[in-house]
Design a protein that fits this description.
Layout: E1 2-7, H1 18-33, E2 38-40, H2 51-57, H3 59-74, E3 78-83, H4 93-99, E4 104-108, H5 129-133, E5 150-153, H6 160-168, E6 172-174, H7 181-188, E7 193-198, H8 219-228, E8 234-240, H9 248-267
Parallel strand pairs: 1-2, 1-3, 3-8, 4-5, 4-7, 5-6, 7-8
Helix pairs in contact: 1-9, 3-4, 7-8, 8-9
């Protein structure tokens, strides 16, 4: 059984079409797989603000997401969260750490998201998500994820101080050229798996996203990851940062590309766990 959760509240959004992007992916998944999404949060305008402003603004949305994911996991469902920004995962990855303490988190992102308030050069909350979930700083929404549980996949734009933290805390990194089904299977072993994807992990031009970086993954590599993960090990999926174009044809094409990449996660679903 799949439970679809959709973030619709601002969580540090700096662009106006991120919330709409999450909604479009959710609607497409509802239609294709007969799902009914659980929508969390109320849309607010974007702003180029610092994490110290955007984090308290997002409190209610993050709390709602935390509760929704907690309930989904308790139901034995495969959780699928569609979010406007990676920042939304500040509310969910601590739940994963608590409910699936042995899980491997495949954090598939062009960036490391392992900055802290002391190392961030941009003040963007989304660049601090994984570090917050691992307890390197206190977001107010929990932590508990062990750095050794996290695997950065496709990451290539990593700040110097951030890279030092990643190395010091033992976060594994699989760069784009080494992102193969074989290496993913070696990284997860027989552990439960939670997959987080920021679409800027892709080579620019496939799915519009903020903060795109060249030399990224190709859609076929993302699909291969989902095809490789055994169905009984996949516990949840988070899809973030689709910046929906105003051009309807381009937007529809991007959504179709996303649905094709993640299709194995919806087509290989074991019965709900008791």
């Amino acid at each position: 059984m799949i439970e679809l959760i959709v973030c619709q509240g601002r969580v540090a959004d700096r662009e106006p079409r991120m919330i709409e992007g999450a909604a479009r992916i959710a609607r497409a998944l509802e239609e294709r797989y007969g799902l009914t999404g659980r929508f969390i949060g109320e849309p607010e305008p974007p702003a180029d603000d610092d994490w110290s402003v955007s984090l308290p603004q997002a409190r209610d949305t993050l709390t709602g997401l935390r509760r929704a994911v907690t309930e989904s996991i308790a139901n034995g469902s495969r959780t699928v969260m569609i979010s406007n920004t990676c920042s939304a995962s500040l509310g969910t990855l601590p739940v994963v750490a608590r409910e699936h303490p042995d899980a491997v988190v495949l954090y598939i992102d062009g960036h490391g998201d392992f900055n802290t308030p002391e190392t961030t050069g941009t003040g963007y909350l989304g660049g601090m998500v994984l570090a917050g979930a691992c307890g390197l700083w206190d977001s107010g929404h929990g932590s508990g994820l062990r750095p050794g549980q996290a695997v950065l996949v496709g990451s290539r734009d990593i700040d110097e101080a951030e890279a030092e933290l990643i190395a010091a805390h033992g976060v594994r990194v699989i760069p784009p050229a080494q992102t193969t089904a074989e290496n993913i299977l070696a990284a997860i072993g027989d552990s439960p798996v939670w997959v987080h994807i920021d679409w800027d992990v892709l080579e620019p031009g496939h799915v519009p996203a903020d903060y795109t970086v060249p030399d990224g993954l190709l859609p076929a590599q993302i699909r291969a990851i989902f095809e490789a993960i055994p169905a009984e090990q996949l516990r949840g999926v988070e899809l973030a940062e689709f910046n929906a174009p105003l051009d309807e044809e381009l937007s529809a094409l991007a959504v179709e590309t996303i649905l094709d990449m993640v299709a194995p996660a919806f087509e290989k679903v074991p019965a709900a766990r008791p």
